[in-house]
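Quick log. Single chain, no ligands specified.
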Amino acid sequence: MGGLDFIVIAIIAANVLISFKGFNDYEFFNRYKFEISSIKGGDKIRILSSAFLHVDTTHLFVNMLTLYFFASSVVSFVGTGGFLLIYFGSLALGNLLSLQFHKNEPYYTAVGASGAVVGVLYAAILLQPDMMLGLFFIIPIPAYVFGIGYLFYSIWAMKARRDNVGHDAHFGGAMGGYFITLLLSPWVLQEHLLMVVLLALPIVVLFVLQKMGKL
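-> predicted structure:
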């Protein structure tokens, strides 16, 4: 078993074990979920712990499957240490952005590894922008088109607030994957400059809208 296999399986195992503990122990779930009032009250561990809890088995399965598919691509470029930095950096940035956007909503709660997983996905897109993804596992689509489209969709969903999905955490995770990858692999700026600029557009739009009070 290689280093990548061990690291990825260890993270997946931690997610599975902690999530299943939360499925069967409501008190445990409530103690470690992302909750604005508790975090602002000093319970900072929730920023990390909430990313190892999930709502149900489908939520857990989709996140872990996505992580497994894209982790190898990221590790092959930035190594195991770089992968871990992207994973946990994206996790932190995703939840910190969520904290910022919901700071005046004391009862707002969330769980899931989506921020970290989306960060890994965006790192993979930056490192290999010519890769093809299967939309709905069927329709082939260039990775960078998916990346740009997904972030613009996330902005729309954050404005609409029509579901209980933490789109802001997804967006923050994508930003983490974007910026940390550029720091770890500055060659991307030379070899994939157009894609770097294009993928930055929704990030700029998000902060312009927030500055204008539109979110």
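The longest helix spans residues 57-101.
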